[in-house]
Backbone:
């Protein structure tokens, strides 16, 4: 699956795809070494060619040391270098794609981004993980 959209429409397009069950969830698990928590990352990717970046959504699981189990805590958006190893994220936060991308770009000194920026959603069958 390959769907072209804009940053402005991205969240609503993804919501529609999820409602139609066309996006797979939780494709990859990343262990957060500093606190032994887990990041579950969805099986689709949003590529932003003009910025050389891609994004994935997911869920942070926190470890309950007493029960030695992981429990979902919060949703996240993770940012990567375009076509890089999905285990090596640049940035993540507890927000949607547009806000996370703006915050990342602002923190890296390049806050200019347009709502019309092209975004391409790739389903799991089109993405090498």
Residues:
């Amino acid at each position: 699956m390959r769907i072209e959209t804009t940053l402005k429409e991205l969240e609503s397009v993804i919501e529609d795809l999820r409602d139609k069950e066309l996006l797979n969830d939780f494709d990859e698990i990343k262990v957060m070494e500093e606190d032994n928590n887990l990041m579950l990352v969805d099986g689709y990717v949003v590529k932003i060619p003009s910025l050389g970046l891609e994004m994935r959504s997911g869920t942070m699981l926190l470890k309950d040391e007493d029960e030695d189990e992981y429990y979902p805590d919060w949703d996240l958006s993770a940012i990567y270098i375009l076509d890089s190893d999905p285990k090596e994220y640049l940035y993540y936060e507890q927000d949607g794609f547009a806000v996370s991308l703006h915050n990342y770009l602002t923190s890296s000194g390049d806050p200019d981004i347009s709502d019309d920026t092209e975004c391409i959603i790739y389903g799991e069958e089109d993405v090498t993980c």
User: Anything to note?
Assistant: The mean pLDDT is 82. Residues 7-19 form the longest helix (13 residues).
